[in-house]
Amino acid sequence: MITGLVPCKGLDAILVIVDRFSKAIIPIACKTTLSSEGWAKILRDEVYAKYGMLVTVISDRGSQFVSKFLQDLYKMLDIKGNASTAYHPQTDGQTECANQEIEKYLRIFINVRQTDWPEWLPLAAFQHNNRIHSATGKSPFFVNFGRNPRIAPDTHTHATLRTPASEEFKTMMKTIHDETKAALTKAAEQMKTQYDKKKKAAITYQPGDKVWLDTTNLHLARPKKKLDDKRVGPFTILEKHGLSAYKLKLPLTWKIYPVFNETLLNPYIAPTFSNQQRDPPPPPNIINDEPKYEVEAIINHKTRKVRGQKDKETGKYTTNTVTDYLVKWKGYGKEEHKWTKESELDHAKEAIADYLKTIQGTVTVQAVVVKTNNLDPPTFILNSRTKDGDIQFQVQQGTDFVTTAWYFEHEIPHLSELIKDYYWVSREEFGEEYGPMDGYAPEEEGG
After folding, report:
1. From the Swiss-Prot or TrEMBL record, what is one GO molecular function term (predicted)?
2. What is the mean pLDDT of the chain?
3. 61-104 pLDDT, tens per residue?
4. CA terminus-to-terminus distance, the chain
5. Of 3.40.50.360, 3.30.450.20, 3.30.420.10, 3.40.50.2000, which CATH number belongs to 13-148+167-198?
6. CA-based angle 302:303:308, to the nearest 5?
7. Against a cut of 0.90, is the pTM above it?
8. Beta strand pairing status for 443-444 and 379-387?
9. Sequence ranges of the domains in the chain
10. Cis status of the peptide bond prior to 271, with omega within 30 of 0
């Protein structure tokens, strides 16, 4: 899926379907929030209704493509569903190449404001499907239908055209065809050149081998990606998947698919000298007959809402705010860092206190708005950001900087007046170009 596009008529993404046999493409304008049901409707209307029933579907590991609903649907229709390995779009390399071609095509023809990209998708598909593919020696149109479609003729017809507009439209179509053919040919050559430069000889690993894992696509608990480690591990190879992917033994706290392409792995070379080796981790302490691992440091924290007890009079459940800490365990590597409930860290109060001291005064406040009354603790709106296309607000209740949480606007309707005041405080603080009337844009999550 191609994302990050300027929204047009409620659409902000392109879903590209590639026929592995003919190499034909079907680009569909859609939303980034496409659901499993929406994907099933696209398969019905754009593939089955025009080309017949599918045999295999290869996709990324997006939730809309691997949901229980789709698994059951594929099974019922006798379709084999395969998901690509983690963080390696080349597993579905044909779609990745098609995505790049479409992006290059759109860069050439869309308007300056980039708001008409859906209108160019049919022509982008036509130009791709009418070009000879290097793998088949034929165009996708010819493979599917046994012939190539007619295009704008190279020479003028002998018939007199009745209107100048007809001649102008014909000339425009011919120009678009010629420019696109040249652009796509050049794009294919550039992609091949770049791939050949980066491709390295494959290394064959055996079960039990140790490897480093590239962190390019991993979301580790570090403040900034720029200064994060380039690789983590070493991890043990469990087994080989397919031709070029391996399953790794990852920590249980890493809730990600453990299969990675070989391009993300590097062989682990054992240290030459004894002083280069990491000491074995210490055994846990036994406190109240329970094993407790020693906390070396607290790295980060977050708060979340949990359901409390049920009120006997109203029948409603109360809502409590709890704090989780990201813990660095003594003697263990960063791959073992774990989010742990505060209630499970009674033996680490000193480490928590040290952490809280380090973050005092380090919270960046873009604009602060306060609401108080005689019943509730002071309420602050500290900051805002965009997530999944919607705006979230950082809300704090109380006077410490620990019990904060992010909420979408629809989750805090009782703070609507406070949100309005927040925008105008931001406007006064950062200049007249900001503010709800002028398109104030909150910071991106993680920015």
Report:
1. RNA binding
2. 72
3. 666 666 777 777 777 787 877 665 544 444 445 667 777 778 87
4. 23
5. 3.30.420.10
6. 155
7. no
8. parallel
9. 13-148+167-198, 210-275, 285-359, 369-444
10. no
